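About this split. The held-out portion is used to measure sequence recovery: a designer receives only the structure tokens and must propose an amino acid at every position. Recovery is the fraction of positions where the proposal matches the reference. Here is one held-out target exactly as it appears in the evaluation file.
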């Protein structure tokens, strides 16, 4: 790779980061999605639309150097804050209607022991850029903790003896000896 391409990639990355850090609200298409989902059950439309309206109009995102925060609600205000160091996994999810509207949800999971996502960023059109941004922050944190290596660490025989082999676990019925 030439030096010019590396510099160009860094400039694009900085520009993309600035765009992600500037996201504060969901895309207006999310309101259309909420309307369409409420219309699925017409008799319940008047009951369902009010909470969706409040959710859409109070939903806020904030991307900082340390983490992400998401808040919504008027009477019962909720705020979820996740530091980049706690993020374990990121998923993109969208159904047929969301794809038609150009939207997707970014599901952020932590090691909290909960099987569902800790935070769901919804109403995003730049969902792939957000996912890449979050993966970059995860990588930066791991490089800071463990450093970068060109090869994988192969344990010495002394270190390898501390771990159980798969066949010894199976022979003992899953219990350690």
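Reference sequence for scoring:
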């Amino acid at each position: 790779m030439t030096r010019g391409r590396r510099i160009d990639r860094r400039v694009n990355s900085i520009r993309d980061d600035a765009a992600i850090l500037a996201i504060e609200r969901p895309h207006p298409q999310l309101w259309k999605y909420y309307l369409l989902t409420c219309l699925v059950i017409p008799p319940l439309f008047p009951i369902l639309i009010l909470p969706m309206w409040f959710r859409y109009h109070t939903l806020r995102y904030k991307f900082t150097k340390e983490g992400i925060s998401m808040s919504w609600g008027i009477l019962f205000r909720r705020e979820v804050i996740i530091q980049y160091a706690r993020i374990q996994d990121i998923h993109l999810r969208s159904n047929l209607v969301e794809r038609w509207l150009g939207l997707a949800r970014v599901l952020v999971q932590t090691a909290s022991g909960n099987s569902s996502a800790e935070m769901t960023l919804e109403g995003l059109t730049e969902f792939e850029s957000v996912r890449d941004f979050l993966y970059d922050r995860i990588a930066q944190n791991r490089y800071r903790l463990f450093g970068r290596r060109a090869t994988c660490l192969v344990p010495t025989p002394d270190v390898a003896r501390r771990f159980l082999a798969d066949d010894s676990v199976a022979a003992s019925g899953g219990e350690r000896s």
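Annotator remark: The chain has one domain: 3-171.
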